[in-house]
# Entry
Amino acid sequence: MFKYMPHTHADIDAMLKTIGVDSIEALFSDVPKSLTHHDLDIPSSLSELELLSHMEELSSMNTPLKAFIGAGAYDHYTPTVIRHLIERQEFLTAYTPYQPEISQGTLQYIFEFQSMMTQLTGMDVSNASMYDGATATAEAMFMACAVRRKNHVLISETVNPNVVEVVKTYAKYKGITVTMVAEKDGETDYKDMESKLSNDVASLIVQNPNVYGIVENYTGVKTRLNETKTMFVINQDPSTLSHLKTPASWGADIAVGDAQTLGVPLSYGGPYIGYMTTMNAFIRKMPGRICGVTKDSEGKRAFVLTLQAREQHIRREKANSNICSNQSLLALFVTIYLSIMGKKGLYEAQQQSFDAAHYMYEELLKLSHFEKAFDKPFFKEFTLTAKTDIHILQNALKAKGYLGPLALNRFDQKYDQRVTFAVTEKRTKKEIDEVIQILGAL
# Structure
């Protein structure tokens, strides 16, 4: 007997035929052979200590690089205490939030996560949580289409292309039309938005700071969108909300993004955590779960699942999403980070990122290798036009232990020689000066 229902050969052949490949191996054709056939050379019959020592020797083959790139994943400080706290028994429970009497720890930190995200964004309610910032944006598109009962969305070209691709993929299989709004001088072109806006458009999706790191100005956008009953979706790095105007202050109907910047380490690409917040009027169209606080029969504070707008609780055809399990561990990670840092700590960390980024920006412009791409406000990430071959710049820094800059033309050739640098509170002035010195010596 199998513990699960395995696919038959006929099942596998039918699925492969549907997606247009000949074999399962063909699905991995894009992965370099050097990675798929890498021998870790692990001897048999090693003790735990011997195996750990062996793996440490292998890890020395890697060259850790100090990151000066972002594009959606940022090397922020992770307090060491977080890893110790998330292993406490109150949190490491096998019980799901459906059993509130034995999962109070889980329910409490989900509630606290929701509370903190609404404070940061200024929105009314939050769920806990989404898979990452890109899929959270796609879920916001679904939500807007469900609320407005329309199947057409606009998305700005200044949104990270990785996010755009995920949105388009989600839209394709839901029959949703995605129209791009042009950019102008590094920001959303609102004249182009005007020409594409109609009563058939469910939402406009923008990003702040955008793919160039520019802090966009949304004055008057919400008023115009209201004329066609179009919802306003803002994808925003939540750490920047310690300084920048909240999505709510811009009139956003839904605010989403990746909360990786709130203490979650880069971890070679994940797992990360998406957030979604909205206004009370749209709470029943929000995917996932919402936790609330109440009192038990003895009058003591208790946490419960308040709203579960998911396909297991309502008719499947009325469910907006099939997201059914929250990313509890990552929500806890962010909750502890924000609790430890507090308002003052988060503000100070981001102020250091801001100051370091602007210092580096000014120093790089003194070199002959770069010139301004835009003259716009930015936070901790900025874009320059490289006057030297980008690979030469990257290889020079890599040889000295630094990762950067990010070539935007890897997304699309329209970006040409544009490169981005991202600077966080972990990057010291000494490191920045060394990067300047390395590039200046080319």
Remarks:
- The chain has two domains: 66-78+342-440, 81-337.
- The longest strand covers residues 301-308.
- The domain at 66-78+342-440 is CATH 3.90.1150.10 (Aspartate Aminotransferase, domain 1).
- The mean pLDDT is 91.
